[in-house]
Design brief:
With 234 residues, the chain is an alpha/beta fold. It is 44% helix and 17% strand.
């Protein structure tokens, strides 16, 4: 049996990413620069033999997946599916507001002076989820257990199905906080602030019900794609 490896990609940079607005279940398209970065990522991943590909149901993740598969040597032959369980967290009434506003109020709910003060402690994803739910006047934010079960079951089901099918590589396009959350669920020592860049690749292996983290926030594929692009142009 071939090893099961997940190439988990954070989607390309969007309009809201650029102007630093909260973007969970709300959605904006990739910017021109965001599309360009993902084209390079696609070139960097062009020769990776993917058995299948997945993305969340958010437009930015779907757009990212299509660009990557469009650059892949065998993109048309790679089965692609959408799974809403691997979408971003829902920030409720905070959606669309400025990042600094949300990350200004959430620490105060948890009795911290500011975001940096909160992150420098042993604050947990559970506490952050409960704080977001507490300030969400629309009552849309998911309770922690619902959020945890959604994210974990989404990634584990993908990995488990691939392992049963004989293993191989899986391309998964998801979201910054969701990926950081998954890493923490796998290994509680993983930090809350993972600093995942748009288009970065986080590589995770799966064997007999257990995930193992191999690489986090790798942007080398983008850089390698740029080199391939320059070679083609020249």
């Amino acid at each position: 049996m071939t090893e099961t490896t997940l190439y988990v990609v954070r989607h390309g940079k969007t309009m809201f990413n650029t102007i630093e607005r909260v973007q969970g279940w709300c959605d904006t398209p990739l910017t021109k620069a965001g599309q360009e970065g993902i084209h390079y990522l696609g070139l960097g991943l062009r020769e990776v033999p993917f058995a299948e590909a997945y993305s969340s149901d958010s437009g930015r993740a779907i757009e990212t997946s299509r660009i990557i598969l469009g650059e892949h040597a065998h993109g048309r032959d790679i089965p692609y599916s959408i799974d809403n369980r691997i979408r971003e967290w829902c920030f409720g009434s905070l959606e669309g507001g400025y990042d600094m506003e949300m990350w200004g109020v959430v620490p105060r709910v948890l009795n911290f002076q500011n975001y940096d003060d909160m992150i420098e402690t042993d604050v947990t994803f559970r506490q952050i989820a409960e704080a977001i739910q507490a300030v969400d006047t629309a009552n849309w934010a998911e309770p922690y257990e619902v959020l945890r079960n959604r994210v974990w079951s989404g990634f584990e089901d993908i990995a488990h199905r691939r392992e049963k099918a004989g293993g191989g590589n899986v391309l998964i396009v998801s979201h910054g906080l969701t990926i950081a959350f998954l890493l923490n669920l796998i290994d509680e020592k993983q930090p809350i602030r993972a600093g995942l860049q748009n288009g970065s690749v986080t590589k995770i292996t799966y064997k007999e019900g257990k995930f193992s983290i191999q690489d986090i926030n790798n942007v080398d594929y983008i850089e390698n794609g740029k080199k391939k692009s320059n070679t083609i142009l020249n």
